[in-house]
Design brief:
Elements lengths: L12 H12 L2 H13 L3 H29 L3 H8 L5 H34 L8 H13 L1 H20 L2 H28 L5 H8 L8 H14 L6 H6 L8 H29 L10 H11 L4 H35 L3 H20 L16 H30 L14 H32 L2
Helix pairs in contact: 1-8, 1-12, 1-14, 2-10, 2-12, 3-10, 3-12, 3-16, 3-17, 4-5, 5-7, 5-14, 5-15, 5-16, 6-13, 7-14, 7-15, 8-12, 8-14, 9-12, 10-16, 10-17, 13-14, 14-15, 16-17
Bound molecules: 4-fluoro-L-phenylalanine.
4-fluoro-L-phenylalanine binds next to helix 1, helix 2, helix 5, helix 10 and helix 14.
Length: 454
């Protein structure tokens, strides 16, 4: 295929890498990764996670970008080309996953706005102990109006950016925040590590106890690998479809995966030493980051300045990820259904807001409403997407590219990566033989395991 003159493209190669890294780096790294590690045995989870990243995450990232650039289409259109027939369903699965993830992602995105407001208004200044912080958070997530308002504001911000289009809207946001976020994390790590009692946190986070590696840890780490790298639903297919033929897919993918993993690992380092130092438990669940960081800020000079900056950056990181989630849905309706961008974005935003309301209320008003094995609506959406839809999407992407369309038809997409002959061969082998087998085994085993051991 040749460059389609009518299709928008990234302004520069760096623009693509930053936007793709912007999609990958988000709440998944700073909010979700630490709390999953906390619930799943600390270092044991980190180890399984890193293995998943290397043997599944990176190859599937490359596969998605290859598919995107090859077809220059949204995920649904792409699968109509490389899969045809029932394979087009893979694209729809991706669009649905993007939509579902966004319904609860935007609730947590709203928390970042709420905490930004709390930092600015001085509410975080009154925190002196972990008990204060836990109380503040509990009150916050139980307040229905605050939850719905912030959920609304987060969707509004996302819609605002997506409406302005690919190069103009998205690229501008991705260029500045990453380095600053990085520096702030380092400052938080230094503060956490110098608190008395921090060493227990380092042991928990970095010294694996192999007996803690259970099927649950493996499936959670796998789901988190897909979620954190924005894989399995076509976000990277969509972004790849705007990539110029001159750009190198292998080296860009390695950079994106590297940046994402480093931010996740650093987030854990910023959180666990502090958790142990103040005597909090690492199994706090989704509140972990929001409970511990205000305590760390309270022990820093000018803590409120750092807190404000941190929650602002976390908000922007969440926004750049949310943009890519909405972008998958929007690219589908504009490319396949011929809707105008504005109509697509506003309709998707409105529906996500409505479907997200039960997720916003899942920690308060609706916390006793249980669906699917006793989960709240929020947890259900999370499990449905990260544990089932994304890994299944990843499996189907690998099988479709490896067996249905044929890798030989797309290998020329890697031509720009001139010096990486072995890497290309290793990638092709992995996508054909390793990724599908491991993914199938884990998905089947987990399905069976879940049914036998509830
Ligand atoms: N990768 C994002 C994060 O870690 O916060 C979440 C996400 C974005 C998942 C886009 C999937 C996706 F397609």
């Amino acid at each position: 295929m040749t460059d389609n003159p009518k299709r928008e493209q990234w302004g520069s190669k760096l623009g693509f890498i930053l936007a793709a890294a912007g999609s990958a780096v988000g709440l998944g790294n700073i909010w979700k990764f630490p709390y999953l590690a906390g619930e799943n045995g600390g270092a044991a989870f980190v180890l399984v996670y890193l293995v998943c990243i290397v043997i599944l995450g990176l190859p599937i990232m490359i596969a998605e970008i290859v598919i995107g650039r090859h077809t220059e289409k949204d995920p649904v259109g792409a699968f109509k080309i490389i899969g045809t027939g029932p394979w087009s369903l893979v694209g729809y699965l991706g669009v649905a996953a993007g939509f579902f993830i966004m319904t609860y992602y935007s609730v947590v995105g709203g928390w970042t706005i709420g905490y930004l407001v709390k930092s600015l208004s001085g509410a975080l200044c009154s925190i002196t102990s972990s008990a204060d912080s836990e109380q503040l958070f509990a009150r916050f997530i139980q307040s229905p109006w605050e939850m719905i308002l912030y959920h609304f504001l987060f969707i509004g911000a996302t819609v605002g950016v997506v409406i302005f289009g690919v190069a103009g809207g998205i690229e501008r946001f991705s260029k500045i925040i990453m380095p600053v976020l990085f520096i702030l994390l380092i400052i938080l790590i230094i503060r956490g590590l110098t608190l008395p009692g921090a060493d227990a946190g380092i042991r928990f986070y970095l010294n694996p106890d192999f007996s803690k590696i259970t099927p649950k840890v493996i499936i959670e780490a796998l789901g988190q690998c897909f979620f954190s790298l924005s894989l399995g639903m076509g976000a990277m297919i969509t972004y790849g479809s705007y990539l110029s033929r001159k750009d190198k897919i292998l080296s860009s993918s390695i950079k994106i995966v590297g940046i994402d993993s480093i931010v996740a690992i650093l987030s854990g380092l910023a959180i666990f030493p502090a958790v142990f130092a103040v005597g909090m438990t690492p199994e706090k669940g989704p509140g972990l980051t929001f409970n511990i960081l205000p305590v760390v800020f309270s022990r820093m000079p000018y803590g409120f300045v750092f807190a404000t900056l941190f929650f602002l950056l976390l908000f922007i990181a969440a926004l750049t990820s949310a943009i890519s989630l909405v972008q998958v849905v929007v690219a589908y309706v504009t490319d396949e259904k011929g809707w105008s961008r504005a109509r697509a974005v506003l309709t998707a935003g409105g529906l996500i807001f409505l479907l997200g309301i039960p997720a916003a209320l899942s920690f308060g008003t609706m916390k006793d409403v249980k669906i699917f094995f006793g989960n709240t609506y929020f947890d259900f959406m999370d499990i449905l997407t990260s544990i089932y839809m994304l890994p299944i999407g990843g499996l189907l992407i690998a099988v479709c590219l490896g067996y249905k369309y044929g890798l030989h038809n797309t290998m020329h997409e890697l031509d720009a990566d001139t010096n990486s002959f072995y890497l290309k061969e290793i990638w092709a082998f992995t996508i054909k033989y390793i990724s599908p087998v491991i993914l199938l085994a884990i998905i089947l085993y987990f399905g069976v395991y879940k049914m036998i051991v509830p």
